């Protein structure tokens, strides 16, 4: 993959450093926040119970704090998702990655899915925060993915996102292309789940992704820095 002209700082600002594994301790989260600050990534994405800790650790940096809502199954009541969003924002989150109601989407219950997304978006708007809608594409047909794109657009979400990273499959180039082609230019696409190498990340950029959920942040950015140094040698 050609990386000519690719800048480490620019790629870093495409990454949400993921700290969502259930076994992570407070120390793990603090170490992850330190890594995120060192590489100056876009954000950390932490579990709801870690938002206040991450916000304190990253105060004074350009790294935002994000968290998840209705994670990972999307089946919480809308009122619960809204409450979760409010609590996260009060604790310092500025980005919310919400899982839509996968079962309702597959049922074709568009009103329920639309209300679910809209409820979280309206809460986020009160705090000038952004919302990324996670589809969990591994469970969806092409038609269902297209429906999710339309409903996310109508709800005024900011991003559509491929996956949680906890389903049988994660981001694919085909899904990124499909999502990019079916949301307006104002909306962005986030790829998550399995983006562990620089080459795949660059392919995803070409496909239309502008943000990435990653645990292999250091590996990806160090690889890019090494390639650029080699080119200049």
How is the topology of this model organized?
Blueprint: H1 8-12, E1 15-19, H2 26-39, E2 43-46, H3 51-58, E3 64-69, H4 78-91, E4 95-99, H5 102-107, H6 110-125, E5 130-134, H7 142-154, E6 159-161, H8 173-181, E7 188-192, H9 198-207, E8 211-214, H10 217-232
Parallel strand pairs: 1-2, 1-8, 2-3, 3-4, 4-5, 5-6, 6-7, 7-8
Helix pairs in contact: 2-3, 4-6, 6-7
Structural class estimated from helices and strands: alpha/beta
Shape: globular
Number of helical segments with 4 or more residues:
10
Q: What is the distance, rounded to the nearest whole angstrom, between the alpha carbons of the first and last residues?
A: 19 Å
Mean of residue pLDDT?
96
Q: Specify the helix fraction band.
A: 40-55%
Largest sheet, described in full? 8 strands, parallel, barrel
The strand line-up of the biggest sheet is: 1-2-3-4-5-6-7-8
Question: What's the total number of strands?
Answer: 8
Radius of gyration, whole Å: 17 Å
Order of helices and strands: HEHEHEHEHHEHEHEHEH
Query: How much of the sequence is in beta strands?
Result: 15-25%
Low-confidence stretches: none
Can you give a write-up of this model?
With 233 residues, the protein is α/β, with parallel strands linked by helices. Helices cover 48% and strands 16% of the residues. The chain contains 10 helices and 8 strands. It has helices at 8-12, 26-39, 51-58, 78-91, 102-107, 110-125, 142-154, 173-181, 198-207, 217-232, and strands at residues 15-19, 43-46, 64-69, 95-99, 130-134, 159-161, 188-192, 211-214. An 8-stranded parallel β-barrel has the order 1-2-3-4-5-6-7-8, surrounded by 6 helices. Helix 2 runs parallel beside helix 3 (51-58), helix 4 (78-91) packs parallel to helix 6 and helix 6 (110-125) crosses helix 7. The protein is globular and about 55 Å long.
